[in-house]
């Protein structure tokens, strides 16, 4: 595919972007910005983003993306509850931490389970209900997102690695499905994810030193 064709598809896609998609993109960017700052507003803004994307994805027969955003919606509520919890001294209970080796293995197995499940589900549904699905790519983007969202709710530094993988996979995935502005959105999130990783690594190391 030549640069001219890609550019033409980009321009046409931007023209076709709905106002709902614009709202979803900007609330999503705000959510990631708040998550980098460890600000609980990550979840209210995230809920706007995910609920809209559930609707957009379902309307466009993108059931893999719809399932991810439905999961995001549930995890936004779960994460909101966790991040809001405080002890008797009014300190937040959930703090930024690194995974240990056992937890890393658990997350890899979690990712593998959902990758296989989503891949075979979309392969089956593609024939009749989800013609726009790209099973191997959708499964990878979805499974990494499931893993990253769960880890972020628990304030694990490594959540950002999974977000980076999700964003890299989602940029071309949404572009070929003609959701161009969402593709741009994931490119912005990719850049923000690197900053978020650095920020959380600093905080995680500082807390580790304090707790020694």
Structure description:
There is one protein chain. With 212 residues, the protein is mostly helical. It contains 8 helices and no strands. It has one domain. It has helices at residues 3-15, 19-36, 42-59, 63-84, 101-125, 135-153, 159-176, 180-210. The relative contact order is 0.14. The mean pLDDT is 88.
Main sheet specs: none
What percent of residues are in strands? under 5%
Number of self-contained structural domains: 1
Topology, number of strands: 0
Give start-end ranges of low-pLDDT stretches.
none
Question: What's the SSE pattern?
Answer: HHHHHHHH
Structural class: mainly alpha
Shape: globular
First and last CA, distance: 55 Å
| Average pLDDT | 88
As a percent range, the share of helical residues equals over 70%
Number of helices: 8
* Radius of gyration based on Cα positions: 18 Å
Characterize this entry briefly.
The chain has 212 residues and is mostly helical. The chain is built from 8 helices and no strands.
Element layout with pairings:
Blueprint: H1 3-15, H2 19-36, H3 42-59, H4 63-84, H5 101-125, H6 135-153, H7 159-176, H8 180-210
Helix pairs in contact: 2-3, 2-8, 3-4, 4-6, 5-6, 6-7, 7-8
List keywords for this structure.
single chain; 212 residues; mainly alpha; 8 helices
